[in-house]
Design goal:
- Helices cover 31% and strands 38% of the residues.
- With 105 residues, it is an alpha+beta fold.
- The protein has one domain: TATA-Binding Protein.
- Strands 1-2-3-4-5 form a 5-stranded antiparallel β-sheet.
- It is elongated, with a radius of gyration of 15 Å.
- It starts with 7 loop residues before the first helix and ends with a helix.
């Protein structure tokens, strides 16, 4: 077994990059928690609150250094993006579905 220590500065860079692309979703009824696990893996939990309750959804981001792409896994789906700049499009799609769920609860 090999254990490698990942510098906190690298983990912080990933957090800042994800937060920078998701900060537009900081609205009254939308919140999120970003948990970077390394410089290439993070998990994100989304919360959408409505009059009838709160819905959560989580996804995992993994950077594939061989293919130079980000893989996002959520509820049996895999999204492939070239950069984190494309993350808001996928998150917006998730939030719209969550908002519909909140109104149907």
């Amino acid at each position: 077994m090999i254990i490698e220590n990942i510098p906190n500065s690298e983990i912080n860079k990933l957090y800042i990059a994800i937060y920078g692309n998701m900060s537009s979703f900081r609205k009254r009824s939308i919140s999120f928690i970003i948990s970077p696990h390394s410089n290439s893996v993070a998990s994100v939990i989304l919360y959408v609150t409505g009059k009838k309750g709160t819905v959560t959804k989580d996804f995992v981001l993994i950077y594939d250094s061989l293919l130079l792409e980000w893989n996002i896994y959520s509820e049996g789906k895999k999204y492939i993006i070239n950069s984190l700049n494309e993350l808001p499009t996928i998150v917006n799609n998730m939030i719209q579905k969550m908002g519909t769920t909140v109104t149907k609860i």
